[in-house]
Amino acid sequence: MQILLDGFEKGGVFMWPIALCALIGATVAVERAFFIFLRAAVHGPVFMAAVQRHVLDGNIDAAIRLCNAEPAAALPRVAKAALLRADRADPDIRDAIEESSLEVYPEINRRLGYLPMIANVSTLLGLLGTIQGLILAFHAVGEATAEARSAALSSGIAVAMHTTFFGLLVSIPILVFHGVIAARANLLLDEIDHYGLRLVNLLNAVRSAGAVPQAGGPQVGTSLLPFPER
After folding, report:
1. What pTM value is reported for the model?
2. Per-residue confidence in pLDDT tens, the chain, 230 aa
3. Nearest to residue 29, comparing CAs of 185, 159, 162?
4. Which of 97, 101, 184, 211 is deepest in the core (most CB within 10 A)?
5. What does the CA dihedral 88, 92, 93, 99 come to, rounded to 10 degrees?
């Protein structure tokens, strides 16, 4: 830790913007990870299998209550929008899913684009500090006295190396976090598309079996395959 503190001190003025990039990047990464991995996520196959059981039993209210139990999760919100229109025609159900998806998608992707931008800015600031250090070093060679030349040259090279090091030290973890979080976000979006379509097909199959799915409706004997693991 002391080595890092010494390097930060020797890196010059560009170390402070790099530190600011580290603070902002860490804040965004932690917030997005908390939302995407914990708040917005549910186990899709298990959740939709439970929804399917309630729909096949003709108990839309129970399926809606299941969705209400996870108000911040993405998939339950989209499923709830479809279930609220379960007694309507196929286009109305699809419109409900599309409308809800258009609300959920931006919430999942919000601020994710900042992470690669912050990583790039951190790297560029490190390179800018490197250029500054080299300028100081060359200036020392040309202008400083013989006694001071060695110390000035060493100081300029230290600025160049430390700013590059810290710029990369900030940017690499941010890019890794972005890759992991973005992959999980894309998985959530894929689950919404996949299970949303399956829910539409399920409601249509129940209707074609002769029962209109609605709250407290009759038992439905339609047998459909459960939602599989993906």
Report:
1. 0.80
2. 666 677 667 777 889 999 999 999 999 999 999 999 999 989 989 999 999 999 988 889 999 999 999 988 999 999 999 999 988 888 999 999 999 999 999 999 999 999 999 999 999 999 998 888 888 777 777 666 666 667 777 777 877 888 899 999 999 999 999 999 999 999 999 999 999 999 999 998 888 876 555 544 444 443 344 444 44
3. 185
4. 97
5. -150
Please state the three-class secondary structure of 109-167 as a single string: HCCCCHHHHHHHHHHHHHHHHHHHHHHHHHHHHHHCCHHHHHHHHHHHHHHHHHHHHHH
CA distance 125 to 12: 12
What φ, ψ does residue 43 adopt, rounded to 5°? Answer: -80, 100
Q: Which two tokens stand for residue 226?
A: 């459960």
Residue 174: other Cβ atoms inside 10 A: 26
What is the four-CA torsion angle of 22, 24, 27, 28, rounded to 10 degrees? Answer: -110
How far is 186 from 28, CA to CA, in rounded Å?
18
Per-position b or e across 78-90, b if 16+ CB within 10 A of its CB: bbbbbbbebbbee
Is 14:135 a contact under the CB 8 Å cutoff?
no
Tokens 């090279």 belong to which residue? Answer: 157
For the chain, which residues make up each domain, given as ranges?
8-207
